[in-house]
Amino acid sequence: MSLIVQKYGGSSVANAEGIKRVAKRIVETRKAGNEVVVVVSAMGDTTDELVDLAESVSPSPGGRELDMLLTAGERISMSLLAMAIKSLGVEARSYTGSQAGMITDDRHGSARIVDVSPGRVREALDVGAIAIVAGFQGFNRGTGDITTLGRGGSDTTAVALAAALNADVCEIYTDVDGIFTADPRVVPSAHKIDRITSEEMLELSAAGAKVLYIRAVEYARRHGVTLHVRSSFNNNLGTLVVNPQDGEMMEEPIIAGIAADRSEAKITVVGIPDIPGKAAQIFTIVASTDANIDMIVQNVSSTATGLADISFTLPKSNGARVLRALEAAQPEVGFASLQYDDQIGKLALVGAGMRTNAGVSAKLFTALFEAGINIEMISTSEIRISVVTRADTLDDAVRVVHTAFGLDAEQAAQVHGGTGR
Fold first, then answer.
1. Nearest Cα to 349, choosing from 266, 264, 421, 254?
2. Could you tell me which residue, 352 or 339, shows the higher pLDDT?
3. pLDDT given at position 405
4. Cβ pair 264, 346 in contact under 8 A
5. Are strands 195-197 and 102-104 parallel, antiparallel or unpaired?
6. Where residue 372 falls among pLDDT bands split at 50, 70, 90?
7. Which of 158, 16, 188 lies closest to 87 in space, CA to CA?
8. How far apart are CA 215 and CA 226, in angstroms?
9. Of 386 and 304, which is predicted with more confidence?
10. Mean pLDDT of all residues belonging to the chain
11. Strand duo 113-116 + 102-104: pairing
12. Quick check: 172 and 7 in contact, CB under 8 A?
């Protein structure tokens, strides 16, 4: 008997028909002789609607109460799914994150898991029941408060439970057939990847691929959890995300995939005295705002002025508070001005085969040049090249690069929903 953790996103349980379809799939897995734990997201756009509702009654809803509100979405879907499973003649028990033993720190809205004690989940499995757990949420022992895990929280919940229960596999169900070489909504000719390393998936997730969130991939890699990304709309085999210890890969493709991200903005600090310590000052200020920095570029200072510029990218949601912090410190740091640009897009080319193949950068930059797409920033790692372009040219950039690297498939990819979650 295998223990399988299945996670279903909001698009898979968006309505009653979706919930019944998911329930049927879960029951089939149980009747095949497997123990099954299910993690479920809120239905459709419920979380966004709850956030909008909160902001309509308060300009700045407090973190504690907002978490209490948002966790209602997953409680609705978990209980409806349990009802649907029971109607098919199989016992099911639903649990909130706290009931399932998801212990977190005390940061509302972006809590991190510190322990998993799934005693009640294990008890349900031991009596032959299917355990259904609300994703995205946990409990802090110190404060006694409910918390939410933030972006990708349900994926992270599923992986954490799989690790704690020593599951054979963690299946992430979405509205596409697996992980593709690019977003099939942008590149219809993208093809499904059958097998990808966790290292490559980490880079794709960090660069904006939304089919799997980076925290879940990172947790799975650290704890040796095998991920299987599949569609909840059919029974096709999806994509396996494997760790190195899962077995050697065959000949690795040069490029595994292309990710795109419009969620970032660029801040340029203009006219910084080119002396030691100024960059440290600037990024210490940025760090004090809890902002996450992505790409950083510093130009060579002008000989005449002795001044340099530093540009960096960060999530748009962090932009306003970082600007305020830097503006307050302008007299101390001594820079001339700040520039803010939220109309940028990031393209990332990822592939473990880059390590042993020359010419990848040349082919990327040539493809963008021939398409008339300007590059504003460049960043690299061992298996990734990221570039910043204008937001309105990003989709075109993804398509021309996808073609340039021979990633196009003959048939268009099928998207069953509309969000990729």
1. 254
2. 339
3. 93
4. yes
5. unpaired
6. very high
7. 16
8. 14
9. 386
10. 91
11. antiparallel
12. yes
